Amino acid sequence: MPVFFIQSNRIANHTVTIDGPLFTHLSKSLRIREGENICVGDEHRFRYRVRIDHVKSKSLQASILEKMEGPPAPSAPIVLVQAILKGDRMNWVIQKATELGVAEIVPLLTSRVIARPPAGRVRITRERWQRIAVDAAQQSEQWAYPKIIQPITLSDLFKHVPLAALGCALLERSAEQSLGSLSIDHTFQGTIVLAVGPEGGWTPEERQELLDQRLQPVSLGQSILRSETAPLVALSILQHKLGHI
Prior knowledge:
By secondary structure, the protein is an alpha/beta fold. It has 6 helices and 14 strands.
């Protein structure tokens, strides 16, 4: 059953109030009716099985039947720093990275990024990406969804991302170490930052800047993967080494 995300301030006296876009989705798309049960989750990693009691014109109210506490947040959260991809490829990466349990996605503007959001549509684009992440987290029954920040440049990245316990950048062929050989396991703690370049790859200057910021250069072997495939393979490897999949 999908888990629909709400804010904890929408819960009072064992009753959940749902309005806004989620109400529209439930009432118009899913045609939810009184008496039906759904599952909702909040930002504190609590999940609730609720029964729909009243459906009004702009909101609904539901009674809490069961409250479940989720597992602790991962001790090694992963921040995916993804150079913006063109077309639907960025949407696809955000969706699948969410299913793979990333904690945050940082859209990156690099020299070879083709699909740059117009200045007047940056906020709208970020909101659309955030909706994609929320939808993916709901469908895959995650306990939380990743935050999507507004696109930033490489120089701003190192101001935004805190000092990571492990930082690595995918560099095709030139990296001496493979991602799979990193010495991490289920006991690892601390933020992991994974940086992935655009379709045309990193420029030499960007590669040097990544190294100057002490991101480890890693590869996925000799094969050259498509720009939307590489981050998902890398995330799968990391989550497997951490014992999450």
